[in-house]
C-alpha cells in the first residue's frame, strides 16, 4: 500500500463541489490545539462569517462538527420533543429524512406531500397548519437537491410564525447559491452543509437558531436525547468571552477550510455569488436546449445550482455518467428515489459554477449522448 492519490475529477454532481486550492491550502496548515487562544480567535471569526452567509444576527450560529445530516438531526432533536406534532413538507428525498427524524423522536409528523420535481404547495402547507392547532414546527427543504427545486422559504417561514410554529429549514444546497435571508424571513432553525455552494470539503454543518428557537430549547420538558448534538452543550463550547467549556475536540483543520471558504464568499459578496450561479445556470440551459435536452423542473422553481436533466428515450443514464467520469473526468449525479434512472443531476455549485465547467460538461454530454453541441 502507498499514499492515496485521488484522481483529478471535475465535480459537477449534487455535492461535494470543487474545492479551491486556497481552501485546500488552508486545511493543510499546521494543526494547533483546539483550546489555543489563536484557534478560539479563528472560531469567533468563523461565527461572524457564517452570520454573513446566513444573513442573520443570531447569536447561536455555529458549524456542527459533522455533515449536513447531523445539522438536520440537531434541528429536530433540540426543538422537538416526544408527543409534539410537526408539519413536514416533502417534495423529494430529503423531506422523507425529516419525517424519519420526527418519528424517531417520538413526535407525530403531519405530512404535506408534493410530487418530486414540484415546489411545496403553500396552500396545502397552510391548510395543514390550520387543521392542526398547536403544531410545534413546520419543516421543509429550501433547495431540494434530489430534484433541483426551490420552494418559497419566505412564505413558509411566515406561515409557521402566523400559526405559532417554529420553522425548520434545510438549506444544505441553498446556502451561498441562492438568497437565504434568515432574519428577514424570521426562520427559526436553519442547517446547511460545507460541501455544496460553500465549496469546502464535506463534514461540517453550519446551523443558525433564532432567539425564539433558543427559548424553545431552554423551555424543554425533557432533556435533548442526543448528547453530542445537544445545542445547550455545544453553545458552551462555541461561546465567546473566555468561558469556553470543552465539549468535543473540534475538527481543527476542517474549520480552517470552512473559514477560508467563507472568506472567499465574503470577498466575492453574496449578491455577486448568487448572480454567478444564475449566469452559469442560464449558460448550461442554453447549451442543453441546443442539444434538445430538457430540464425536469418548471422555470419558475428551478435551482441554478442543481440542474435536473431528463434522460432522453433510448439513452442509458448510467452509461453516460460512466463515460463522463472515465473519458472526461467529470462527475455528475444520478436521480434519487423515484427519479433514479430518469434524470441526471448537474451541480453548478460554489467554485464549480463557472463558464469553463459549463462548457466542459456540455461538450462531454454531446459526445456521450450522440447529440450536437451548439
Ligand atoms: N439535505 C439536503 C437537501 C441535502 O442535499 C443533503 C445532502 O446532499 C443533506 C440534507 C444531507 O447532507 P450530508 O450528506 O452532508 O449529510
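^ C-alpha cells above, recovered residues below v
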Amino acid at each position: 500500500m502507498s499514499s492515496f492519490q485521488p484522481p483529478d475529477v471535475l465535480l459537477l454532481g449534487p455535492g461535494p463541489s470543487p474545492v479551491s486550492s486556497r481552501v485546500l491550502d488552508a486545511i493543510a496548515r499546521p494543526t494547533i490545539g483546539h483550546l489555543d487562544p489563536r484557534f478560539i480567535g479563528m472560531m469567533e471569526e468563523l461565527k461572524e462569517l457564517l452570520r454573513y452567509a446566513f444573513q442573520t444576527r443570531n447569536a447561536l450560529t455555529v458549524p456542527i462538527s459533522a455533515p449536513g445530516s447531523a445539522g438536520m438531526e440537531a434541528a429536530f432533536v433540540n426543538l422537538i420533543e416526544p408527543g409534539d406534532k410537526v408539519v413536514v413538507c416533502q417534495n423529494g428525498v430529503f423531506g422523507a429524512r425529516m419525517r424519519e427524524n420526527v418519528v424517531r423522536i417520538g413526535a407525530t409528523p403531519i405530512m404535506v406531500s408534493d410530487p418530486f420535481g414540484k415546489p411545496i404547495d403553500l396552500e396545502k402547507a397552510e391548510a395543514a397548519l390550520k387543521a392542526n392547532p398547536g403544531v410545534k414546527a413546520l419543516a421543509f427543504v429550501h433547495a431540494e437537491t434530489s430534484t433541483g427545486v426551490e420552494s418559497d422559504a419566505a412564505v413558509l417561514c411566515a406561515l409557521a410564525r402566523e400559526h405559532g410554529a417554529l420553522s425548520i429549514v434545510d438549506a444544505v444546497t441553498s446556502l451561498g447559491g441562492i438568497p437565504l435571508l434568515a432574519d428577514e424571513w424570521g426562520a427559526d432553525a436553519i442547517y446547511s452543509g460545507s460541501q455544496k455552494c460553500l465549496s469546502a470539503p464535506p463534514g461540517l454543518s453550519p446551523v443558525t437558531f433564532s432567539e425564539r428557537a433558543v427559548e424553545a430549547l431552554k423551555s424543554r420538558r425533557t432533556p435533548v436525547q442526543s448528547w453530542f448534538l445537544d445545542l445547550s452543550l455545544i453553545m458552551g463550547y462555541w461561546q465567546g468571552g473566555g468561558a469556553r467549556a470543552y465539549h468535543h475536540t473540534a475538527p481543527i483543520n476542517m474549520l480552517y477550510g470552512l473559514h477560508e471558504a467563507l472568506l472567499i464568499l465574503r470577498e466575492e459578496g453574496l449578491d455577486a455569488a448568487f448572480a454567478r450561479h444564475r449566469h452559469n445556470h442560464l449558460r448550461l440551459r442554453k447549451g442543453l436546449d441546443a442539444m434538445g435536452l430538457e430540464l425536469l423542473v418548471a422555470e419558475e422553481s428551478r435551482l441554478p445550482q442543481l440542474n435536473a436533466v431528463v434522460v432522453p428515450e433510448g439513452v442509458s443514464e448510467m452509461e453516460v455518467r460512466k463515460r463522463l467520469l472515465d473519458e472526461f473526468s467529470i462527475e455528475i449525479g444520478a436521480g434519487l428515489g423515484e427519479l433514479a434512472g430518469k434524470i441526471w443531476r448537474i451541480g453548478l455549485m460554489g467554485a464549480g459554477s463557472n463558464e469553463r465547467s459549463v462548457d466542459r460538461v456540455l461538450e462531454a454530454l454531446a459526445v456521450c449522448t450522440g447529440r450536437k453541441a451548439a
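DSSP finds 13 helices and 14 strands in the chain.
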